[in-house]
């Protein structure tokens, strides 16, 4: 957190927000559905590709801010399997922008010790894109800072299918297929995010109230934060506000927080005339 504060103007809005964050209760893993590029462009009578281009700056800001405040992992939803349905020119532009981002930002990623990884069906990407992603992952593999995880050609349902198929294939190779017993742990260990903590906070921009096939298994207990802000307009202030809101939440994971109960359950049931048989 101090790394961020030293770069902020004292008493500025971002400085006040950062000071209000408890560094002991930061989300270990933040996931973001970056939505609204097309609407941002449409409202300005610009082509959709202009929105995607404008969406590069908030990516840079979010990565830098998360790294400086001490977030362990950041997962960004960049391209879904369903996005192949979009016009070919738009898809090609997205690949060009991704490659451009990597070329421009890789030196900064290295300076900050960030480990860059991708998840999804990477073998379905155009060869030049896949090669560039793999080169970036290789270059940062030994970094020990924040894990920057980009979902590319990704689908939550496809991830679960791939995980289950991997479990079955492992059992077949081991000759234990007839005794196969699938557990939550065996599924988690085959997910694209194996080795990462599940997201504590899922942010979605543009106000849409849906998950869009993203991290369906991993976000079972994530705190959801939806903002009307379109992704190209998302800035450090928006991220800090999301973290502050996260820290206000009462996370119980299906249980109850410790604290005095108003009455013993059996006493209350007896008082209202309900008795055990």
Blueprint (SSEs and pairs):
Layout: H1 2-5, H2 13-19, E1 29-33, H3 37-43, H4 48-54, H5 56-69, E2 73-80, H6 88-111, E3 115-119, H7 127-140, E4 147-154, H8 156-174, H9 184-188, E5 201-204, E6 223-226, H10 236-248, H11 265-271
Parallel strand pairs: 1-2, 1-5, 2-4, 3-4, 5-6
Helix pairs in contact: 2-10, 3-4, 4-6, 6-7
Explain the overall architecture.
By secondary structure, this protein is of the alpha/beta class. The protein has a domain at 25-156 and 196-250: Decaprenyl diphosphate synthase-like (Undecaprenyl pyrophosphate synthetase, 3-Layer(aba) Sandwich), CATH 3.40.1180. The chain is 44% helix and 12% strand. It has helices at 2-5, 13-19, 37-43, 48-54, 56-69, 88-111, 127-140, 156-174, 184-188, 236-248, 265-271; strands at residues 29-33, 73-80, 115-119, 147-154, 201-204, 223-226. A 6-stranded parallel sheet has the order 3-4-2-1-5-6, sandwiched between helices. Helix 7 (127-140) links the parallel strand 3 (115-119) and strand 4. Helix 3 packs across helix 4. The mean pLDDT is 93.
Strands of the widest sheet, in order across it, are 3-4-2-1-5-6
Q: What distance separates the N and C termini? A: 57 Å
Computed Rg: 22 Å
CATH class of one domain: Alpha Beta
Number of distinct helices: 11
- CATH-defined topology of one domain: Undecaprenyl pyrophosphate synthetase
Report the average pLDDT across residues. Answer: 93
Major sheet attributes:
6 strands, parallel
Q: How much helical structure, as a percent, in the residues? A: 40-55%
- Please state the overall shape, judged from the principal axes of the Cα atoms: globular
What's the total number of strands? 6
Low-confidence stretches: none
